[in-house]
Design brief:
This protein is mostly helical and 457 residues long. The chain folds into three domains: 91 residues, Fumarase/aspartase (N-terminal domain) (Fumarase C, Chain B, domain 1, Orthogonal Bundle), CATH 1.10.275.10; 231 residues, Fumarase C, Chain A, domain 2 (Up-down Bundle), CATH 1.20.200.10; 96 residues, Fumarase/aspartase (C-terminal domain) (Ribonucleotide Reductase Protein R1, domain 1), CATH 1.10.40.30. The protein is 61% helix and 5% strand. It has 18 helices and six strands. The strands form three sheets. It has a two-stranded antiparallel ribbon. A two-stranded parallel ribbon has the order 3-4. The chain has a two-stranded antiparallel sheet with strand order 5-6. Helix 8 links the parallel strand 3 and strand 4. Helix 6 runs antiparallel to helix 18 and helix 7 packs parallel to helix 18. The model has no long low-confidence stretch (mean pLDDT 97). The structure holds arginine. The site of arginine (ARG) has 9 residues, from helix 6.
Length: 457
Amino acid sequence: MTLWGGVFDLPPDESLRRLNDSFSFDRRMYAQDIDGSIAYARALARAGVLTVEEADVLIDGLRRVLAEFESGAFVDQPGDEDIHTAVERRLTELVGEVGGKLHTGRSRNDQVVTDFRLWTMDALRRVDALGKALQSALVASAEGHIDTLMPGYTHFQPAQPITVAHWLMSYFWMLARDRERLHDAWRRTAVSPLGSGALAGHPFGIDRELLADEMGFLSCSQNSLDAVADRDFAAEAGFGLALMAAHLSRFGEDMVIFTNPALGFFTLDDRYSTGSSIMPQKRNADPMELTRGKAARLLGRLTGLLSMIKGTPTGYNKDYQEDKEAVFEMFDTLELLLPVVSAVVSTMTVNTAKLRAALGEELLATDLAEYLVRKGLPFRQAHHVVGRAVREAQAEGVVLSALPLEGLRALSPHFDEDVRDVFSFERSVAMRSTTGGTAPEAVRRQIAAAKALLANR
Ligand code: ARG
């Protein structure tokens, strides 16, 4: 029997059931559904809709249903369309007719989105904690590599020398913004829709504010028609998660390139790399490729959520049932990825010598131009002069520092003996000591700021 069969002569066809039923995936929200129902039974009793004794019977029954879900003893029946139907059906079997009073003034429209918001609030906290663990792993690794030099890239062309700590910390700040976004999304998720009814509100005078508070929400919604159809929180959380996945994917891409033997900057720990079934020498960065690959799922799911919302008319629409698998998959994917990415960071070997060997003198061309600036030449001219010097060195097949001083002087009289000092990667890095720069002293301050942030959140 369905919950809504009264008006129909025939039960739904089996093919419709297969399309319509959501229990297979929304059963994940059993704890939120039952917690919400317990709070709702109390609210009904406070409003005088139920006697205290009736509420106690319902609450006791709901706790027994919860125990069945938790122990795996819950047995679903063919009519269990969704988690709400299943819980109410089982409750009524356990406590009898009074079970039929629980849904007074409530609709599955306000119930489902209450459950889903509670579920999303928990999940946001879990991903936040995993994001924080990754940030801690990045800081710990960075602290060991404040003086380790590596080539920095733009357009993936060698650009200027940086430190490994600086590169690692760049991901810390992406994650800091990701976590802030998830906190923001959490605040807007923590708004209770319960007591909105199907669309028009609650006719029995329940205290919605107190009900919201009991369930762990920050506040309750102000418009019942909006509340039952509002899936903004799902899209917002989805965007936060998709962007976080995009950041992890960038790290994955870096690592695929940097672990390639042609560069060999880092080596993944045995536990976090995979081999080939035919080529014995292979050490593949599968977890990093999967990080890139799985990010695509999240981008797709986010697009799906936004598309789901845009075409729906006022009030609740069954389209919204599609929200849950999308959001579940996004959280599941990140919960799978984040621990592996953290472990990759904590266990990878940093091949200092390879990083050093990859530093070419062309990375100091900007420093050379800045040398001329310090001698009084306008930067635009200095840039041109050094460009000519780079061309000459390339034509001669020598490194920049091998150009004779007379040759340099022919390009600009500002060159002097002290130009030799410019050809030091350490010097180049040390010069960039203002806030946010790659100089060891600046990176130490960066790391201190990062630790202060982690101590707060
Ligand atoms: N399973 C439904 C969902 O996820 C629950 C709400 C159903 N409401 C309704 N009026 N059919 O959206």
